[in-house]
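Hi R.,

Here's the chain you asked about this morning:
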Amino acid sequence: MEKLKIRGGRRLVGEVHVSGAKNAALPILCASLLTAQDLKLSNVPDLADVRTMLRLLEGMGVKVERRGHEVTLNAGALTSTVAPYELVKTMRASILTLCPLAARFGSARVSLPGGCAIGARPVDQHIKGLRALGAKVEIDHGYVDAQASRLKGARIVTDMVTVTGTENLMMAAVLAEGRTVIENAAREPEVSDLAECLNAMGARISGAGTPTIVIDGVETLHGAEHRVIADRIEAGSYLCAAAATRGDVLVRGCVPHDLEAVTAKLAEMGAGLEQGGDWIRLSMSGRPHPVKIRTTPHPGFPTDMQAQFMAVAALADGASEITETIFENRFMHVPELARMGAKIRVNGNTAVVTGVETLEGADVMATDLRASASLVIAALAAQGESTVDRLYHLDRGYERMEEKLRVLGADVERVRG
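And the predicted structure, written out as tokens:
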């Protein structure tokens, strides 16, 4: 099993370039199922989850060609409309094949994703919306079975804001007969990126990025070219690493507008920030100031940045309060940070983080994707050597992280053991 060995205590200084967004790439890859023509994508990150999704699509008969960060997909000769448990169990985003398959082929059988380390993420809103569009949907032996002739437009009001639910239902509605209105839609930039790709394929979607998305269905979609947006969570993670190590880092290839909730909190913590069209520079000269953070759907503070900020808050001059409202089990990194000397008290969905002057190197274990980034950030700032185990969590969402950190002056290496 691979681990990261980190010798901490070094300021991060320099430039780092952000990769394409995992959470945008995965639904866009599934959008290839909606057309018989080529979908050509660029800026696709080389991540474990992306590789899993490509294997899943290839198993259905999608022709996949990959050259570096460019991927061409063709679903003109699909051989199966089944997403088996063997692949779905490793990546929850596989549920995003459900609606494209039902919309274009009239049939889909997709394994239920099951539980997740950071909490339950049910697919009931996906099923509710698909039924509203006229599909017959049953749960059968751990699979979602959907059958439909042509879907028909409908007004869908989700019971909660759900990113994957919004994305899945958008992909169902683009080929439905008539108009579909999705109310209480997720507003994340990744939802807007999917809509932009679908519109390039001939869809008629308006309102993406707002709580109300309107889709006028079309008969067919065609091929297109699309560039995946930058990963705002990766960008935010490097900004947090710079803050924790009192460094000076320029993050290139990002979208500053998409990071406003993150950069506002970093500024509140005392960081110096500059930004341009596609870059953000952060410099930190002293201990961070304590802050209050409450995770909420976009454009609020992202749950995917909560763990990274906790690592920074662990070094603050005072007590920070972090409240998690999205997932019920997203404090699993707390015991691992405590092994490094962090002082954190959890009461329900709120963590009170009393900052210490220095963290100490330790052997720690990642429990989920963003927890792994939190532990890496803490290890970079800590005195002494740390090892971060279960690196496969990190590889799901961060491309070549150890290489990018070394460019910034970090002493980090990937080891087996």
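The first strand starts at residue 2 and ends at 7.

Let me know if you need anything else.
M.
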